[in-house]
Amino acid sequence: MDADLITISEFSKRAGLSRQAIYKKLDTSLLQYVVNVDGQKMIKRQGLQAVHRKASTGSVKSDITKTDGLYIDSLLDTITILKEQLHVKDGQIQGINNQISEKDSQLSNKDEQIQGLQRLLDQQQRLQAAQHAPALPAQSGIWSRLFGKKDK
């Protein structure tokens, strides 16, 4: 066996990727490094450098499987549903805020009515106190008492 060739299992260990990921790359980015030896696929060591180079530059396209695509679609559907629910909740919160504002306005009106009634009550109490107070006799000076008419 050529020392420049390694098995897929060994290649996956050295590359830090799963064997499944390596098998997926055999037909694309690693195709030029694949050698068939007695019916077994082997990979040239230079393929490791290519994998590491692509990983470090970020140019490796992620291999999205059908399952991954379905999972992503499911997540996107969930996000859409959650956004709709959030929109509904925002509307409910706005309605509650409107109700709170209306109640605040009503309480302010009630406070004004209470103050007006308190003023009326104070006026009524003063009037009643004035009506029940004894009338003070007219005061006369000392001369009118001395020389004035006397009641008989």
What does this structure look like?
The protein is 66% helix and 8% strand. The protein folds into two domains: 59 residues, Multidrug-efflux Transporter Regulator, Chain: A, Domain 2 (Orthogonal Bundle); 64 residues. Strands 1-3-2 form a three-stranded antiparallel beta sheet. Helix 1 packs across helix 2. The longest helix has 67 residues. The protein has five helices and three strands. It has 152 residues and is mostly helical.
Pick out its properties.
single chain, 3 strands, three-stranded antiparallel β-sheet, 5 helices, 2 domains, Multidrug-efflux Transporter Regulator, Chain: A, Domain 2
pLDDT averaged residue by residue: 83
Total individual domains = 2
Helix content: 55-70%
Shape: rod-shaped
Counting DSSP E segments of at least 2 residues, the number of strands comes to: 3
Portion of residues in beta strands equals 5-15%
Q: Over the alpha carbons, how many angstroms does the gyration radius reach?
A: 49 Å
Give the oligomeric state of the chains in this entry, treating copies of one chain as homo and distinct chains as hetero: single chain
The biggest sheet, with number of strands, parallel, antiparallel or mixed sense and barrel status, is:
3 strands, antiparallel
Across the major sheet, the strand order is 1-3-2
- Judged by helices, strands and strand pairing, the structural class is mainly alpha
Number of helices: 5
Unreliable sequence segments: none
SSE series: EHHEEHHH
Distance between the termini: 156 Å
